[in-house]
């Protein structure tokens, strides 16, 4: 089969057909197919499979993708469970009541793990991913603020949400989609995460909430939720403006409880109203699963909760999506049962140990400076040592590493630090110390290559890489 894409310059040509190798096409089947229209006739399943298989074969090797937090491996029993349940529709609680009951068990386990005062009184739901979970948490913030303002006879015309400039793009989407003004607190060399500094310049009576991040996408760092809460306590005492916190723990929510159990970032802090995490990140499930949990029912206005009937009773539901897979919820429950607290601790600590080994190796090279000497989630960033060279940059190194199959993104930091470019590595379950050593060898090889340049490299082809 030929390549499914035809490129003209850097754009895709829309007038090229997809051609089939004669060995793949069966007798009387078409050997040329349009790329962007439905084919006129049917084809045999084997032929269609070969086309899709060969197209997907051109994707990268997930084990060598150090750009993403999203899980890429599960064990054989999980794969079997996935095959047995991929047809389950999570929203159809009437047809799949036991899957619905397992969903409830999962978010109640998370409520307990995150120290909800009364886990049985908490409220939670599974979502397609952390982005939907964040949208729901933000929507609950906005609706609660609107209800309070209306009850006081005040305007609801100008809600705002306060967060770090290093926030994940899902929060930008929330503010855009739900008409909330985003107020970004810029990070700096002195304040590399949102830490409560100058928060009173951004919070006012129209602030629906503050977002704290447990595992900043750019660097992997935890924002100090306790310090943010203390700053909001001071604001409340001085102005009467009482603002809740949502913790975006997409990554850290399934790491911190196991590797830093004494760190108070969750519902132990009274101002924390809700927390989200990604089941498909350090929850260790295949892509397509997020969770959001609220401290208690009072954190979610009743008008946002819909009641569905199952097992002869009623079950609250709050989602933006309707039909969606139920298999990932079952996979999450499988892992909760299989690993338990000790198993998750072992897995996450192993990832942290490998990440620290990598950081030590990269930090030992004269050309690099680690962005942080603290390892929170198993991810870290580094930059070129200031003034080290003008012949190459981290974008060039990123491109050189792709020769070996590695995807290690390079990208500029957010506003106020856009002149700083970093590279970042994310260590996920299954990335071994042996693979880490192979990456270190390849980094050293390519740095040696770049160091031998006698003239500056041309501008890197990729302005910056995707780093979700």
From TrEMBL:
InterPro entries: Glutamate_decarboxylase (IPR010107), PyrdxlP-dep_de-COase (IPR002129), PyrdxlP-dep_Trfase (IPR015424), PyrdxlP-dep_Trfase_major (IPR015421). Its cofactor is pyridoxal 5'-phosphate. It holds the Pfam family Pyridoxal_deC. GO terms for molecular function: glutamate decarboxylase activity. The keyword Lyase applies. The keyword Lyase applies. Keywords: Decarboxylase, Lyase, Pyridoxal phosphate. It catalyses: L-glutamate + H(+) = 4-aminobutanoate + CO2. Its EC number is 4.1.1.15. Coiled coil: none annotated. Signal peptide: none annotated. Belongs to the group II decarboxylase family. This is Glutamate decarboxylase. The lineage of its organism: Bacteria, Bacillati, Actinomycetota, Actinomycetes, Mycobacteriales.
């Amino acid at each position: 089969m030929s390549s499914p894409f035809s490129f003209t310059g850097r754009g895709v040509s829309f007038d090229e057909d997809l051609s089939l190798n004669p060995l793949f096409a069966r007798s009387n089947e078409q050997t040329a197919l349009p790329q962007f229209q439905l084919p006129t006739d049917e084809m045999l399943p084997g032929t269609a499979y070969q086309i899709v298989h060969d197209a997907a074969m051109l994707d990268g090797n997930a084990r060598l993708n150090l750009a993403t937090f999203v899980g890429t491996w599960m064990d054989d029993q999980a794969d079997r469970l996935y095959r047995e349940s991929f047809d389950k529709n999570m929203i159809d609680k009437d047809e799949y009541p036991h899957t619905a009951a397992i969903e409830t068990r999962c978010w109640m386990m998370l409520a307990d793990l995150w120290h909800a005062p009364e886990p049985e009184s908490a409220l939670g739901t599974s979502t397609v991913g952390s982005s939907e979970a964040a949208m729901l948490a933000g929507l609950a913030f906005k609706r609660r603020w609107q209800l309070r303002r209306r009850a006081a006879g005040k305007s609801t015309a100008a809600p705002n949400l306060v967060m770090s400039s290093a926030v994940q793009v899902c929060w930008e989407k929330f503010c855009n989609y739900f008409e909330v003004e985003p107020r970004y607190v810029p990070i700096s060399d002195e304040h590399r995460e949102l830490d409560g500094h100058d928060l009173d310049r951004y919070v006012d009576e129209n602030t629906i909430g503050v977002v704290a991040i447990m595992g900043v996408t750019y660097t992997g760092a935890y924002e100090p939720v306790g310090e943010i809460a203390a700053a909001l306590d001071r604001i409340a005492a001085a102005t009467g403006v009482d603002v809740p916190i949502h913790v975006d723990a997409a990554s850290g929510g399934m790491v911190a409880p196991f590797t830093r159990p004494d760190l108070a970032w969750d519902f132990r802090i009274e101002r924390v109203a809700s927390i989200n995490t990604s089941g498909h990140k350090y929850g260790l499930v295949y892509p397509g699963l997020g969770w959001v949990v609220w401290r208690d029912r009072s954190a979610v206005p009743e008008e946002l909760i819909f009641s569905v009937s199952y097992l002869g009773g009623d079950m609250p539901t709050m989602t933006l999506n309707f039909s969606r897979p139920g298999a990932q919820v079952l996979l999450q429950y499988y892992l909760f049962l299989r690993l338990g607290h000790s198993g998750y601790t072992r897995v996450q600590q192993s990832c942290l140990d490998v990440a620290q080994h990598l950081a030590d190796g990269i930090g030992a090279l004269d050309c690099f400076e680690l962005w942080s000497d603290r390892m929170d989630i198993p991810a870290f960033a580094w930059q070129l040592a200031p003034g080290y060279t003008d012949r190459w940059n981290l974008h060039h190194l990123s491109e050189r590493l792709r020769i070996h199959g590695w995807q290690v993104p390079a990208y500029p930091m957010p506003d106020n630090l856009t002149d700083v470019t970093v590279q970042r590595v994310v260590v996920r379950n299954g990335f071994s110390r042996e693979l880490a050593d192979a990456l270190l060898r390849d980094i050293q090889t390519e740095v040696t290559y770049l160091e031998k340049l006698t003239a500056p490299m041309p501008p890197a082809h990729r302005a910056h890489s995707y780093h979700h």
